[in-house]
Write a structure and sequence with these properties.
- The complex is a heterodimer of chains A (903) and B (254).
- With 903 residues, chain A is of the alpha+beta class.
- Chain A has 4 domains: 1-158, Roll (Ubiquitin-like (UB roll)), CATH 3.10.20.30; 194-284 and 347-422, 2-Layer Sandwich (Aldehyde Oxidoreductase, domain 4), CATH 3.30.365.10; 515-600 and 755-902, Aldehyde oxidase/xanthine dehydrogenase, molybdopterin binding domain (Aldehyde Oxidoreductase, domain 4), CATH 3.30.365; 611-739, Aldehyde oxidase/xanthine dehydrogenase, molybdopterin binding domain (Aldehyde Oxidoreductase, domain 4), CATH 3.30.365.
- Chain A is built from 23 helices and 31 strands.
- In chain A, the strands form 7 sheets. In chain A, strands 8-10-6-17-14-15-16 form a 7-stranded mixed sheet.
- In chain A, helix 15 packs parallel to helix 22 (865-877).
- Chain A is globular.
- Chain B folds into 2 domains: 10-142, Uridine Diphospho-n-acetylenolpyruvylglucosamine Reductase, domain 3, CATH 3.30.465.10; 155-252, 2-Layer Sandwich (Enolase-like, domain 1).
- Helices cover 26% and strands 25% of the residues of chain B.
- Chain B is built from 8 helices and 11 strands.
- Chain B has helices spanning 48-53, 61-69, 73-78, 81-87, 94-100, 118-121, 197-203, 234-253; strands at 33-36, 39-43, 104-108, 113-117, 122-124, 127-128, 135-142, 147-155, 166-175, 178-187, 194-195.
- In chain B, the strands form 3 sheets. In chain B, strands 1-2-7-3-4 form a 5-stranded antiparallel sheet. Chain B has a 4-stranded antiparallel sheet with strand order 8-9-10-11, with helices on both faces.
- In chain B, strand 5 and strand 6 form a beta hairpin.
- The longest helix of chain B has 20 residues, at 234-253.
- Classes of the chains: A alpha+beta (903), B alpha+beta (254).
- The interface between A and B is large, with 66 and 45 residues.
- The complex binds flavin-adenine dinucleotide and FE2/S2 (inorganic) cluster (FES) (2 copies).
Chain lengths: 903, 254
């Protein structure tokens, strides 16, 4: 059927089945890929467009209903002369777009509001944007942007040469994000590509045999099974390739891939799962830590006795003996569940065979690891694999593991045609990694003066069916589990067990957020026991420069926790007064204030993780940052440009960017462990300096010479003298920098230098608890973070605010239950109405090793949030949560139980 | 059948839609709210946003409150009253409100139309009494005999886009400062939202004052049969329903 309508003000028509979703028609048929699909179910709002001036989810609108109406998308927002609209400009200027996948939806929802109410207040903004989820920003800067859109446009920060570091320049890749032009994993799929649909296990543990697939072959281009995979195992660690690309007769978690159907898109979608013949032998799954460690537990993987993946710890002093002399001891056991990354962009990508090479365009956090994994799976040389990262619509650790890559690569290789795969939301949630569920048992003791003396911590993790990043979590946690405090006697142990849960992998913090819930509860417990203020107790024990950590590392520099706490102190005192006044009013609501601290080692734990960055100056005068570090929204493209620009001595605005492509850049490692600013940033600094040295040598100029780039001429001003380098003559110039943070291996007692530097932070939360319903509303968060040096304060705040939103979700609402919360309807992440106003305070205690003194901030934002919220709930109600998420029914139950005890 | 599509499409993620679909979204006579001789007619495809925007007496305050709590703004702009009721989710926010408005459902087939009380329309979880070929064309809300007000409260685990853990609705008709008629319903605490006749009876004749909430007794909740699920436990739902009802009634006096 043919529909006629208005599209972004112009006459448009479309033909097809009227039940087709508007989102699909826009993207697939009308070429408008600015409208994003995050769920196809109305839950995320990424697909928001205006229909007759009103915001709707285009994934829920039938094309049949569009006839005669007006549709407006992000592509229609720009001014007629191609400039950004006020609103788009404000999004860019305020840093409201991080990964940018939610941005088109946010813009359209905001546009709907601004047409109705040109000067909205915060409440109206929340109301209007409540239906669009953002997993990156914590919404703060989005609210700022909508408020700013009704004000005079903000002047753009454009620092001169040498002034980029520390400046709030807008994202170098931001324009594409606010116009909908950025190409994410599902946006650039060639029209002639075949599609893959993966058939997945509905069972957590079973053996299976595939029946006759011949009837399917008739309808499809290929049906791939385990036997089609040259090397059917992948995994993060070179020696643990335990996860099959396609299961080979046995499945170990619900959602595991079994068969890949390849064909034209309509055909693969029309094959129902029950048309794929499978004979099942279902077995009782091993669910949870207790089941995995039971004496008679079945083995999840052969060759893994006791289901143990790995264990290890840190030991210093004599914790057991030291407890005897403690004036106060606190103890507790804390449990967390599987948590889903819930990036708004599901896994997506496509591959193409080019001669005897395979090229994969994919949303990823780690192009170089992808390249090596694909080479291994396909048994090709590394050189035969090219990864071209698309824009990445959020990662948070979940796009470090392979997803669509091996499937599209295998199919494209075989069929010699482009092949694409885009996960559905339920598939993304069922099939990809999760945060490790943890059980952390902790015992902490201090002396009468409130100085910490000893701690004993055991952190047990459910690593799911495959190893993934389990070893990283089990290694990192013992180092961090005592918290950011000086502690003479430590025993901390980490262990991870296989279960038939989804593979638990990397998720912002690698297990440290789980451990922080325990150590911060211990801090509150000890402070309360001694009658010391909770903030002052932490201040007394904070690790400071010169202190020795439990691994025997002397922190020579940059340990700014005490400064973070100093910065919070006035807020803390004020909040206590306000909360007491509120509570004096009685009623069924109680307020409380809580505090959480953290430290976080930047980069890999005791393992080499080098980055190489290049800066090139072409004969035509194009200055390019060749950046192998992918920007997953956190802003590394911009940060590295700022650092390289100042190191070189030219303005950041003159840089072009080549990012991630493994054919065009050098390996800058993975975007994880908060390492890109510190490690790749240092390499970018080196690259800028290297290029500068070459230029100065060519010009025979001194170190203080001032550069300026004018077309293909480079002017070098050295004192009164100006020399000109004709780049066309000088030929291409390339500067290279490399950095690998200095660490040492940990010995059997966990002694050594696991990280070159640590970030520190303290956050406080004010909450209001409804005593009758058990609901918690977070009213305000103040976050003080020692980041070494804020290369770009807007981006740093964005990381902190986004981390806080995820920490709030971890504390209060997020629980992934296989088969039950596999969509964004049942799995709840915070909406704009759930994240409070956040005040960020940046402490800059320079790290001499880092670029301009910078450390990292990607993960730290999340770590202290849940402890602060849970501490505030305890302050308000006397209930100490020992299990998160603290859903209303759980808190209610605990409040009722506590009341019962009192009576 | 497809109205606003907000329940239709989410149940069809990642597969082709092959069934025949009747799209009623564009039928003008099914849309909108109008006064009739003996009450109000709410067209089947009236959207939540249209409910919010409509100029209606305090009798409809509860329905408007519910409309503001459905999903987010996009869902309110597309989702319809009939879609909400015909989808027959235990957590459908519209059902308790319309139950307390004593709404009747007008059902049409090619041959005839019939009307039935809403209480008889939803027969179970995601089940209605609609026969094949039938469609809901409107809801009819009778004029109250006395001055009337309604209210609605919803409990969810986050601010927007959230399925109710429990929700409550009440319509009070007031004559000479006393409750002449009370209709109260609770949703998400049983397969189908339930009226609470014992509580309604207990409120008759009561003055609308600060003590109204004290008239509620746990035994009034007998018709509820909540379950444990990912959103909350059965015990919690029962407690929460009680708390919400108390607050709802207290709100009438405020
Ligand atoms: C993100 C999101 C959030 C939501 N939040 C809420 C919420 O907070 N509270 C809530 O109650 N609901 C919520 N819903 C559910 C839904 O939006 C509402 O139930 C809405 O009112 C359904 O109306 P619709 O017109 O979109 O239904 P449709 O999807 O068009 O139809 C739903 C069902 O009803 C049938 N149907 C529709 N109209 C008729 C008719 N006239 N006669 C016979 N059968 C008919 C259809 O065949 C279909 O089976 C949410 C949905 C989404 C996607
Ligand atoms: S894609 Fe439409 S709401 Fe998520
Ligand atoms: S910027 Fe909002 S989801 Fe990434």
């Amino acid at each position: 059927m043919k529909m006629n309508f208005t599209l972004n003000g112009a006459v448009a028509s479309w033909s097809g089945p009227p039940v087709t979703r508007l989102a699909a028609a826009l993207r697939d048929d009308l070429g408008l890929t600015g409208t994003k699909i995050g769920c196809d179910a109305g839950d995320c709002g990424a697909c928001t467009v205006l229909l007759d001036n009103q915001q709707v989810c285009s994934c829920l609108v039938a094309m049949g209903q569009v006839e005669g109406r007006s549709v407006e998308t992000v592509e229609g927002l720009e001014t007629t002369d191609g400039g950004l609209s006020r609103l788009q400009d404000a999004f860019l200027a305020c840093g409201a777009a991080q990964c940018g996948i939610c941005t088109p939806g946010m813009l359209m929802a905001s546009e709907d509001l601004l047409r109705r109410s040109p000067q909205p207040d915060r409440a109206e903004i929340e109301e209007a944007l409540g239906g669009v989820l953002c997993r990156c920003t914590g919404y703060s800067k989005i609210v700022d942007a909508v408020l700013a859109a009704s004000q005079a446009p903000m002047p753009r920060v454009s620092p001169p040469a040498g002034g980029a570091v520390g400046a709030r320049i807008v994202r170098v890749d931001g324009h594409a994000k606010v116009t909908g032009r950025d190409r994410f994993g599902a946006d650039g799929i060639p029209g002639d590509a075949l599609w893959i649909r993966v058939v997945r296990s509905p069972h957590a543990r079973a053996r299976f045999e595939l029946g006759d697939l011949a009837p399917l072959h008739g309808r499809l281009a290929a049906v791939l099974t385990a036997s089609d995979v040259p090397f059917n195992g992948f995994g993060i660690y070179p020696d643990i390739k335990d996860q099959p690309v396609l299961a080979d007769g046995i499945v170990r978690f619900r959602g595991e891939a079994m068969v890949a159907l390849v064909g034209d898109r309509a055909s693969v979608l029309s094959v129902r799962d029950d048309e794929v013949p499978v004979a099942w032998a279902i077995e009782l799954p091993v669910i949870g830590i207790d089941a995995a460690t039971a004496a008679d537990a079945p083995q999840v993987q052969v060759g893994r006795p006791k289901n143990l993946l790995l264990d290890g710890g840190v030991r210093c002093g004599d914790a057991s003996a030291a407890f005897a002399g403690c004036a106060a001891v606190a103890e507790g056991v804390f449990e967390t569940t599987f948590v889903e990354h819930a990036y708004i962009e599901p896994e997506a990508g496509w591959a193409e065979r080019v001669g005897d090479r395979i090229e994969i365009h994919v949303t990823t956090q780690t192009p170089y690891m992808d390249r090596d994994e694909i080479a291994s799976v396909m048994q090709l040389s590394r050189e035969s694999v090219r990864i071209v990262p698309t824009a990445c619509g959020g990662g948070f650790g979940g796009k470090l593991d392979l997803s669509v890559q091996p499937l599209v690569a295998l199919a494209a290789w075989r069929l010699k045609r482009p092949v694409a795969c885009v996960y559905t939301r339920p598939e993304s949630m069922a099939a990809t990694t999760k945060r490790h569920p943890a059980r952390v048992s902790a015992k902490f003791g201090c002396d009468a003066a409130g100085k910490l003396v000893a701690c004993d911590i055991r952190a047990t993790f459910d690593t799911g069916a495959y190893a993934s990043w389990g070893p990283t979590v089990a290694n990192r946690v013992p180092v961090h589990a005592m918290g950011p405090y000086a502690m003479p006697n430590v025993r901390s142990w980490g262990e991870a067990f296989f279960t038939n849960g989804p593979p638990a992998g990397a998720f912002r913090g690698f297990g440290v957020p789980q451990a922080a819930i325990a150590h911060e509860a211990m801090m509150d417990g000890l402070a309360d026991r001694l009658g010391i203020d909770r903030l002052e107790f932490r201040h007394r024990n904070a690790l400071r420069a010169g202190d020795t950590t439990a691994t025997g590392q002397v922190l020579a520099h940059s340990a700014g926790l005490a400064e973070c706490l100093d910065a919070l102190r006035p807020h803390w005192r004020k909040a206590h007064v306000e909360v007491a006044a509120f509570n004096a009013g009685g009623g069924n609501k109680r307020r409380g204030v809580g505090i959480g601290c953290m430290w976080y080692g930047i980069g890999n734990t005791s393992m080499s993780n080098p980055s190489i960055i290049r800066v090139g100056l072409s004969p035509a005068g194009t200055l390019t940052l060749y950046n192998g570090a992918v920007d997953i929204g956190q802003g590394s493209n911009t940060i590295l440009t700022q650092i390289a620009a100042d190191a070189l001595g030219l303005p950041a605005a003159q840089f072009a960017l080549v990012s991630g492509d493994t054919d065009l850049t050098a390996d800058a490692g993975k975007t994880s462990a908060s390492r890109q600013t510190f490690v790749s940033g240092k390499a970018a600094e080196g690259a800028g300096q290297d290029l500068r040295r070459q230029i100065l040598r060519l010009a025979n100029a001194g170190a203080d010479a001032v550069l300026s780039l004018e077309g293909a001429r480079l002017l070098v001003r050295d004192g009164a003298e100006v020399r000109t380098i004709d780049l066309a003559v000088a030929g291409p110039l390339i500067g290279e920098g490399t950095f690998d943070p200095p660490t040492t291996p940990l010995d059997a007692d966990g002694q050594g230098v696991p990280y070159a530097t640590y970030a520190f932070a303290a956050q406080m939360a004010t909450v209001e608890v409804d005593l009758d319903l058990g609901t918690v509303k977070v009213l305000r968060i103040v976050a003080a973070h020692d980041v070494g040096r804020a290369i770009n304060p807007t981006l740093v705040e964005g990381q902190i605010e986004g981390g806080i939103a995820q920490g709030l979700g971890l504390a209060l609402m997020e629980e992934f239950l296989p088969g039950r919360t596999e969509n964004l309807h049942d799995y709840l992440i915070p909406t704009i109405g759930d994240v409070p106003e956040i005040e960020c305070i940046l402490i800059e205690d320079r790290e001499p090793l880092g670029p301009s003194g910078a450390k990292g901030v990607g993960e730290p934002g999340l770590v202290p949030t849940a402890p602060a919220i849970l501490g505030a709930v305890h302050h308000a109600t006397g209930v100490r949560a020992t299990r998160v998420p603290l859903l209303p029914h759980r808190l209610h139950e605990a409040i009722v139980a506590a009341k019962g005890k009192l009576q | 059948m497809l109205a606003g599509g907000t329940d239709f499409y989410p149940s069809r993620v990642g597969r082709t839609i092959e069934e025949d679909v009747l799209d009623i979204g564009g039928i003008a006579v099914l849309r909108g709210i109008s006064a009739t001789v003996d009450g109000w007619r709410l067209g089947a495809t009236t959207t939540w946003s249209e409910v919010i925007a409509a100029d209606l007496p305090p009798l409809f305050n509860g329905l408007k409150q519910a409309a503001r709590e459905v999903g987010g703004r996009q869902i309110q702009n597309a989702g319809t009253l009939a879609g909400n009721l015909c989808n027959a989710s235990p957590a459908a926010d519209g059902v308790p409100c319309l139950l307390t408005l004593d709404a009747e459902v007008e059902i049409a087939s090619r041959m005839t139309t019939r009307r039935m009380p809403l209480g008889q329309f939803i027969s179970g979880v995601r089940r209605t009494v609609l026969a094949p070929g039938e469609l809901v064309i409107a809801f009819h809300v009778p004029n109250p005999r006395h001055s009337a007000r309604s209210a609605f409260l919803k409990l969810g685990a986050r601010r927007y886009l959230v399925i109710s853990i429990a929700m409550v609705a009440a319509t009070l008709e007031i004559a000479e400062d006393r409750i002449a008629t009370a209709r109260i319903a609770v949703g998400a605490c049983s397969a189908v939202a339930q009226r609470l006749p014992a509580l309604e009876a207990a409120l008759l004749g009561a003055p609308v004052d600060g003590y109204l909430a004290d008239r509620i007794d746990r035994a009034h909740l007998a018709p509820l049969a909540p379950i444990d699920d990912v959103r909350g436990s059965a015990d919690y739902r029962r407690d929460a329903a009680l708390v919400l009802l108390r607050r709802l009634l207290a709100g009438f006096a405020a």
